[in-house]
Design goal:
This protein is mainly alpha-helical and about 400 residues long. It has one domain: Up-down Bundle (Growth Hormone, Chain: A). It has 17 helices and no strands. The chain is globular.
Amino acid sequence: MTRKQHFVIILILGTLSTISPFSIDMYLPGFPAIANDLNTTIDKVQFSLTAYFFGIAAGQLLYGPLLDRFGRKMPLYAGLGLYLLASVGCAFTHSIEMLVLMRLLQALGGCVGMVAAQALVRDLFPVSNIAQVFSLLTLVIAVSPMIAPTVGGYATVAFGWHSIFLILAGITVLILVAVYYALPNGRPADPSISLRPQAVLGNFFTVLRQPQFMTYAFAGGLSTASSFAYIAGSPDVFMNLYHVSEQQYGWIFAFLAIAVLAPNQLNHVLLKRFSNEQIVHTTLIYQSAVGLIMVFGSWAGWFGLTGLLGMLFLFLLGQGLVGPNSSALSMMPFARHAGSAAALMGSLRMGFGALVSAIVSLMHNGTALPMIGMMTFCAVGGLLILLIGERAIAHRSGSVTPKAAL
């Protein structure tokens, strides 16, 4: 593989992975306008976000076996086609109920990009390079929160919130063209893989019986769900509590995205000296500590807008380290069932994210505490799962103790 081919493949896989982040982030500045236009409230609009998360969680379980059975590209075309139609449906909806339904269908189609990208990483790159490739993908993904809310804010003001979904439809057309002409096929179709429910569930159970997958998929999934708590709560916190405009919210979101972007570069350096396990372990301890300080400080009234932004920035710094390393550790044991493993890992993450975002909406009380409280819960919960899982892995491998932290 030449350097140019390597770059093109990473770029396409990155854009496939950004379909859902763009779908989530771009319409956040439009929440007040959507609520006003559809005669509802922001906390009701938040349920369209929750529906999207649930759609991703369910859809990934479907696409995993399909990607293993039919190869990578045919399910990609089908899923992206559904996403395209649902995006147009979102643009022309006239009720919050229909928006929630269209967002669910949009997620069921768009999540194929996330599963296919992770499976293709396992197909196209050697195991020793998987963590670095995931870091590059996360780098591309991390750019989307810097662009999407800002574009969404200006598009909402200039053309109305409906235009956001038409923009997403146009982006999807470009991605389909790139996939068709420039993306390698990856692992070929495997007719021996059955799509009967019993066989599909058997593949998932094969993945779940691997302690390394269980530990890092669950710990990484819960800890990364903290970003979903932030995404679900931030429109209300910043635009209602602190009264920032749609454009200002977009710039705030872009600023905090830097916190996720910067550690991805650091991860390349850390991986030369430390293991994936050590990085995940230490980062979760760091995030848990920052989260507890953030919760106590908010409860005590220490933070205004600037102080809260600073604490959120410090917390989100850990996301760029936990995500790619826990993903790599989850996928390492698998080859033949890489599609099912990727689907199950992604479904767990989005399932956690959907649950967390729903809790943030239900706990709405006009303060920032529901958002930051759930963020902290996710980090601490992920750390506890990791500590228990490390002992299970060490016991199975015959080691006396799990690998030390940094």
